Amino acid sequence: MTNTQQPTATRLAARGPVNLVGAGLAGALLAVLLARRGFKTTLYERRPDPRETNAEAGRSINLALAARGIRALERAGVMDRIAPLLIPMRGRMVHDASGSASLQSYGQREHEVIYSVGRAALNRVLIEEAARHDNLAMRFNQTCVAASPENNTLRFQDRKHKTEFEVPLAPTIATDGAGSAVRLSLARANRVAVREDWLDHDYKELTIPAAPGGRHVLDANSLHIWPRGGFMLIALPNTDGSFTATLFLARTGPNSFEQLKNSVEVSEFFRREFPDAARLMPCLEKEFFAHPQGQLGTVHVNPWHVDGKVMLLGDAAHAIVPFHGQGMNAAFEDCAVFDSLLDRHDDWEPLFIELARIREPNSSAIAQMALENYTEMRDTVLDAGFVRRKAMAMELERRFPDRFIPRYSMVMFHPEIPYAEAQRRGALQHRILMELDTSGTRDPALAEKLVKDRLDPIRG
Ligand code: FAD
Fold first, then answer.
1. How far apart are CA 21 and CA 44, in angstroms?
2. Ligand 1 centre and the CA of 395: distance in Å?
3. What are 349-378's pLDDT values in tens digits?
4. Best substitution site from 328, 335, 411 to test ligand 1's pocket, by max atoms within 8 Å of Cβ?
5. Cα of 191 to ligand 1 centre, how many Å?
6. CA 8 → CA 266, 309, 337, 348, distances in Å?
7. In 3-state terms, what secondary structure has residue 206?
């Protein structure tokens, strides 16, 4: 770096050490990015150090990683270590009630796949990468209990020694997840307004074990879905040959968690609704009662930052429902944008303001699209009209690749298109598809007219 480029980074860094609260997916990635730029950073995490515990022990929980997340991981220079953890999934394998399965491709080009990755393994690699930098300190077993912009303090509880201590707040990046303690503290002090919209559906993670020899018992390169109208089961592959299955089900009412109170009810429900999957789950009843029933919701926060002292990022700022597989991807994209803004700002406050300005509309868009995708996954994927329009969308993409890209593809495979733009273009495209579908014609000239009249060429 030349002397003329120095002042930007130097002035931000000169404001003292940076605190990061939460060494989950966003916190660990941001730690790598900040450390690479020479920031003196301390990363606080309430859990024990994953390098000292066996991350793979117990349940394996996986996530879908897509282009936005990959782009951020590449920016941090960690993709070569993460690539071996990934299993490509080229589409949804939809299992209908009769037991037959059909693949709906996610994209139509070779590289248009998403990847299943173990959460613990991914997190651990990021922490190992962060640990390579001397300017980064990692403090595990430290629970953040309060953040006070007024007193400029960040308070922690040391879980091992049962002591409390404080550090200066400014600047703190809070990546402490959907239940963020920093956010709660700021909300209690009336510095941010928070709205949490909980779904009336919960989830539970279960296992489809590997066959002897570590073989996958279902196609390993698909995301499996058993859509059943108001609820669904999904399964993503793990590198050890198992699948992590997740049941999404209403909390109360007919076909709900409330009705699954004992082993008989669980086994009858699965044999009735998912008989093919149930046969692959030998520990179903035991796991069902041993694993927690998780809640799902969308978190809206305004503003995301206070006084240039503290900024919420990742799920702490914008937790979303998981049906588009984008929560982590969006959190990683936050980190990449944060990193890019370090080049442009001398001070934390304008950086926080610009980061929120860029990211808020996009996180609102993906929050909304994720909610819509729940209906699509559990209901619409089996609908003949949906399948027909999806095929039409693929055809339009082949004919007009610079104007028409299916919304799912924009979100998953096109990080150069911001979420809000994907949502805007997606709405226009949806209308075009409905018009072509209801007109019942396959008139290529009409399709061309609608696409060219209504969709600008994509910039990116
Ligand atoms: P987290 O990963 O939750 O990390 C928060 C960290 O902060 C944790 O390490 C936690 O221990 C720590 N912490 C919390 N409180 C404190 C405290 N008080 N003091 C100190 N440390 C603290 N996203 C995808 O992109 N693709 C998917 O397929 C996908 N599937 C999902 C499936 C389910 C069922 C769920 C619930 C979510 C899914 N997500 C998915 C979303 C994804 O998990 C989150 O968006 C992502 O983990 C957000 O990262 P984060 O770092 O903001 O939060």
1. 5
2. 37
3. 999 999 999 999 999 999 999 999 988 787
4. 328
5. 23
6. 59, 18, 16, 11
7. strand
CA nearest ligand 1 atom 47, residue: 328
Tokens, residue 288: 């069902």
Ligand 1 site, CB within 6 A: 21-27, 44-47, 63-64, 143-144, 175-177, 181, 203, 246, 294, 314-316, 322, 325-329, 331
CA-nearest of 416, 330, 314 to 365 is: 330
Provide DSSP, 128-189. Answer: HHHHT-TTEEEE-SEEEEEEETTTTEEEEEETTTTEEEEEE-SSEEE---TT-HHHHHHHHT
Q: How many residues does the chain have?
A: 460
C-alpha–C-alpha distance, residues 289 and 423, integer Å: 39
Residue reference for tokens 């029933």: 293
**Is the whole model's pTM more than 0.70, yes or no?**
yes
Whole-angstrom Cα distance, residue 357 to residue 11? 22
- Predicted confidence band of residue 57 (pLDDT cuts 50, 70, 90): low
CA gap 173, 11 in Å, rounded: 17
